[in-house]
Every structure is written in structure tokens, then in C-alpha cells.
Amino acid sequence: MGQIARMLRLINLFCHRRVVTIEAIRDICGIPRRTAFRYLTTLSEENIPVYFDKELGGYRLAREDRLDLSDLEFHHAVLMVTCLRITRQHLNDSYRKEIDDLISKLIPAQKHSLEVLDPLISSADAPESDLPDHSADVTSALISAAVLMGKKVEVTTISNGGGDQCATYENPGLLFQQEWRIGHRLTGLADARSIKSIAKVRIL
User: Fold this and answer.
1) Cα(114)–Cα(164) distance, integer angstroms
2) Phi, psi for 148 (deg, rounded to 5)
3) Is residue 188 predicted with pLDDT exceeding 70?
4) Are the C-beta atoms of 22 and 56 separated by less than 8 Å?
5) Mean pLDDT calculated for residue range 27-40
6) How far apart are CA 78 and CA 70, in angstroms?
7) Span 48-67, mean pLDDT?
8) Any residues with CB less than 8 A from the CB of 80 and at least 6 apart, and which?
9) DSSP bridge pairs for 202
10) What architecture is domain 3-61?
11) What is the model's pTM?
12) Is 92 helix (H, G, I), strand (E, B) or coil?
């Protein structure tokens, strides 16, 4: 594979991935690590700006076309609010507050008034007693994302006495002892909490 073909493959890689590591460039383009850094420099010199994202641990294109809530097309905004309204019916009160907060940010950001539509969407809510609760699915998704990305999380559990208890895990990990638990990677089960007991997860 020639240099031009490798450069085109590298550009294609950046176009289809959110973040690209040096190891990925080396393996996919079939070049040494040192050459991978030189290719990144060449991209920047040719006005294809690439920067290192410390949080994601890799290189990204410096895009100026990131989506802003105010840039949503009207039908997309209506679709999002509708889906959020439907989703909140299947969640516990803790997650419903999160959804309501998201909707409260989404509606005012639009160029067109969605306040008129919001009551119409809300009035279509089905009786809560007929709806399955998918809060556990949301909890599992948030915990998995936090563990995968090494993000700090705050979990809220419901104690036997009925009160809420919060705990923060700087470096969360999943552990299994009769059931799945979340805890600190280094301390193991010492302060782990059952996934089933968690009412809400917040990635910090």
C-alpha cells in the first residue's frame, strides 16, 4: 500500500470514528508508531486539524459542526420531545426528573415554540399502572458506560428504611458475588452495592 492510499485510509478512519488512537492508526494503516505521528502532523499541515482528546485518550478531528440543541430541525425536536415523554413513563421517579430536566432544556432552545405541543404530548400518556418499568435497563446502560469509559459515578440506592443513600465511585467496576454489584476497582466488594438496589445513576 502506497503512502497516498494510507493517508486516504487514515482520513476515512477519522471520518467514521469519534476518536482514533495511535495503535489503531498503526494497525489499520500498517505503519510504525513513529510514522503514525508524522501522518497526523501532515494532516494538520494540509488544513485537516486533528487534536488529542485527553478525556477520550485519542485523536479527533476538530469539527465546527457539532450539533447544538437550537440547530435541531423542527420535526427532529418534536420527535425527541415525544420520545422522551414516552420513555419517562417507563422509568422510576428519579429518572423521570432527569428526563423532565432534559425536556426543559430542549424546549426553550428551539427557534419554534414547542411549549404549545408539550401539553398535547403529555396528554397522550398511558395509565402508569399498565406500563412496564425499564429503570433497571437505564441503570445498567449508565453503569456499563461509566465502567467502560472509566468515569466517576454517583449512585442512589433505596435502603430498607425507605430513605435514599448516595455513594460516589471514582473508578467504578462491576463485581459478581451471587448478584452483580458496583464498587471501586481497587477495594472490591468492601463497599460494593447491589445493582438491583440502585434507583438512579449519574455519570459525573
Assistant:
1) 34
2) -65, -40
3) no
4) no
5) 90
6) 13
7) 76
8) 72, 106
9) 154
10) Orthogonal Bundle (1.10)
11) 0.52
12) coil
